[in-house]
Amino acid sequence: MSESKHSESSEPAPVSEQQVREVEKHMKKYVLIGGVQAIMVLIAVTVAVNVSASLQVLATLLVTCVNGLVIALILMHLKEEKQTIWKFLIFTAIFFFILFFLTYLARTDVITQTLHNHH
Amino acid sequence: MEIPHTVTPRPDTGLYNAKLAIWLFLASEVMLFGGLFSAYAFLRMGADDGYWPHGLLDVPVGTLNTILLIISSVCVVLAWASLKMRRWKQYQAFLGAAVVLGTVFLVIKLSYEWNDKFHHFGTFIKKDKWAEYDKYLGNDYLAKKGLAPRPEITGHLHEVEVEVAPENKAQLDALIQKRGLEISKSEEGGKTLSIKVKAPSDAEALRNEPGVKIEAFEMALDEIYTDPTNPKYDRPGFWKRHLSEQVATIHADDLDSWSAFVPKHSSFLAIYYAITGLHGLHILGGLVMFIYFLFFDRALYLRNPEHMANRIEVVGLYWHFVDLVWIFVFPVFYLL
Predict the structure, then answer these.
(1) pLDDT at residue number B272
(2) What is the pTM for the complete model shown?
């Protein structure tokens, strides 16, 4: 077993200066990403208020999707993640879209017709 | 026996065990929330014009909550980075901030947003009675402009007028006393009563009382119903509807249904409570884990700081996912 351990009574051994600098650089990036995300939320609200009704859904969801991608790729480190994770996330995404597609089919099915006739 | 690969990656997956596990868990979570979002899309696309409610949710408050969650997400990743630098105090500060922000999010959601809905009241007018309530609904004006009609009048319930059978009067009095209600008017020897209510749940209790028939509701109107032909209300707006001073009397016989803004009010609120409730439970779960790591995991940090950092990375992935879900919940419910 190569996992490093330290005595329970003392503080863990400090990491190297270089490692600290590296991590601090990442920390700045995370704060910046947080700021970008907050701004994108405000953009989504502004878009939803000001854009015409026909474009509203598309534009708002587009901004939201970009925001979601930022979280997944940077804060969740998916950008640098192993292929194993990417593979089953791609499978999940496929199932997710099938789920939505089935809903769409259901809408054009007899059930919706029944509802419309009912009204 | 020690569990292997809590710090070092497994040779076959290239990942330490907990990371693989959390991503598999998050994949299942995508399908869980995906099913609910799919239900939302089905309801939203299938809703007839005018029947999908707008203006029920408070956009500025929703925006604030979104930003709180984003900041908490950043705090968690900074807590993880602090552990990587072996800065325990800094880690505690960031994770503590995440706990505070997550708690504020939940408090706003439950005590303000949900509570506000539980105290709001909606009455769906029968279609053949729309003309009688046109000064509130403005459906003649909307029809002339080719816009969808308004089927519902909403606001804050003040009073309920009931008719009570003499043999049930004592039971009704007991209910009024138990719920701390007040009779503002009594007519026909106590057969017809006007009862001041605190919340729509009081009206529900009166409805369920044997021998009691609800005759009418007296409610303060949401501002849109005081000026329904104002062109500013032509397009469904998502800014929250404010209450006006104007009070209207709505007769119970003229209604298809009435209720507080609870799940049974509409499919919109049903899916709203389902998704935001499930999301809230995820927030609560995350907070419990954070508090555990904050106060009960120091020994692991001293023994094996990398293992501790991995734990925070894993719980951080969960928290970012909860943030990600909210990033989608916010626009679909509050903005569209």
Answers:
(1) 95
(2) 0.89
